[in-house]
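Sequence design from tokenized structure. All designs in this work follow the same two-part layout: the structure record, then the generated sequence. An example of the structure record is given first.
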């Protein structure tokens, strides 16, 4: 007796009791696993979070006098980006809109991607909101947040006794 007669989900007998061939699903999952494993180890400029949202890659540098935040926002323009300071946290938000269209002979290929992003960066020391400066050039947002001198003076070392 051929193997196809033993499997109740073969094409000759109609649709599988579970809706599809389980080996097809297993093969697809294994292919996806190997594709993810062998993919280049390059951090995307926009990462996808657990909630499915996207956010930009950010570098934060702290000195004695200021915080320096650099965010990569490739393909965005100044009008697409909003920067705010709320509750001693820097908030970078905006919307990424990208459309790509190629025409070759009689075929057309179009790809669109849209998504809002928001990144909140909490700051340990209070900043001087009046002196915050932000610059945007070639898809790179650079924000300098000077620390409030009065807040810096409030920090002091406490001696620990044994």
């Amino acid at each position: 007796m051929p193997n196809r007669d033993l499997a109740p989900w073969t094409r000759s007998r109609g649709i599988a009791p579970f809706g599809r061939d389980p080996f097809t699903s297993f093969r697809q999952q294994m292919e996806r696993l190997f594709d993810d494993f062998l993919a280049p180890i390059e951090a995307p400029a926009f990462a996808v979070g657990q909630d499915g949202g996207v956010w930009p890659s950010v570098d934060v540098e702290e000195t004695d006098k200021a915080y320096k935040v650099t965010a990569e926002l490739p393909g965005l323009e100044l009008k697409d980006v909003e920067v705010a300071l709320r509750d001693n946290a820097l908030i970078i938000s905006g919307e990424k809109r990208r459309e790509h269209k190629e025409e070759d002979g009689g075929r057309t290929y179009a790809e669109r991607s849209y998504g809002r992003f928001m990144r909140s960066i909490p700051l340990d020391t209070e900043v001087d909101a009046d002196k915050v400066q932000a610059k945007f050039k070639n898809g790179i947002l650079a924000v300098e947040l000077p620390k409030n001198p009065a807040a810096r003076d409030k920090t002091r070392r406490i001696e620990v006794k044994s």
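DSSP finds three helices and nine strands in the chain. We note this feature because it recurs in several other targets discussed in the main text.
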